[in-house]
Amino acid sequence: MKKARKTTQKEPAFLHADERRAAGKAIRETVPRVSHAHWKAPKDRADIVEIIERSNKGRLEHLIPIRHGRMMESAFAFYRGTADIMAADLATTPVSGLRVQACGDAHLCNFGGFATPERRVIFDINDFDETLPGPWEWDVKRLAASLVVAGRQIGLAESDAVRAARAAASSYRERMSDYAGMRALDVWYDAIDLDRFLKAVDSPERQEIIRKRLEKIEEKNVPDYLFPKLADHVGDTPRIKDDPPLIFHPTPEQTPGLHTQFGDAIRQYRGSLPEHLRTLFDRYEFCDLAIKVVGVGSVGRMCGVVLFMADSRDPIFLQVKEAVPSVLEPYVGKSLHDNHGQRVVAGQRLMQSASDLFLGWTRGLDGRSHYVRQLRDMKISAVVESFDAGDLRTYGRICAWALARAHARSGDPAMIAGYLGGSETFDDAIADFSVEYADQAQRDYRTFVKAIRHGRLKAERLG
Prior knowledge:
This protein is of the alpha+beta class. The protein contains 18 helices and 13 strands.
């Protein structure tokens, strides 16, 4: 009689969610949650004016004063334009050691609504210029501190600004706990659509305002609105309108080989698109390119708007934006992608629940990395200046929800949730940090303004 063959069942290589939660909780022993509560500038902290001057390298020289002028408008505008300063500061703060695909610049204005390829409006992170794998805490702290800086800017009571920061931290913790209990595929399917967004807005009046804004944006489709606003015909040729200094056609020195070799850059971009979308892109023909000044931190970078036409009444505008090394890179390591445009695209696709059909990357003839997306696609952003205390708190909670969802896709939500726990300990710590770092941002802003007044930096404020 033959002996039965002995079989052994291999133990799974993964840990179950409750085990991962326990592992995350154990990290508190070495990195207590209360350790996130404070910010104190180190004695060897770099001169922030020198950081700003370094960040200006490679930008178009005549646009740098415009960048400074936009940053000079308020402490919040300065905060938005100085992700590099905060990245250096965050690198000196405690971290749990758990990493995610980080946004790198998760302030409250880098979230918003936009249309998915299926024409469904969702709310998500919408800026990934600095994305790179890194500590999840850095994004949470960047978001929470931005709420305090913004709250002060719009004249809210300090207590209301702090409540908004604490509410954001609480929302992140609660949502991460939810994602920790979900199947991996369900986390990836999850999205904050318009109905879920509106349910999170507890003011019927604010809900109605959002609906009306969205209706107006839906009316502004490309053929009927954007084309006559940005372009015109010169004879039979469609051409982007110049509106210097914010929109202008580049010189040969600024875009070498534009007319002789631009086809190579377009072919690189086409190759970065999924194969089935190349058929769609091939219906369009390149017509014109102009430099378009955008944002705060991006001013001076080689950012352009490109007009393509499928026929005389079928335009599309693509934004081509220069991508440079992430501000996180000195502290978390270099990107795996040689082309920083590809880094941005890969990070965006990983963090967003849905991304632009035309999202891709290329390299310019001058060696600069770029990423490409539609210029506008039913985008809706918060008008922070109109917020009251309740609006800021609600919006901060929704932003934190989107951030938790993005982190749960690339990181381990169970371990992060285990570290955060069910109490308000982390929430209180982040609120305390946000106040202290907002104070730092305001001190840095005053130093920046002083440097302009003393002629160390040049600024141009447009009317």
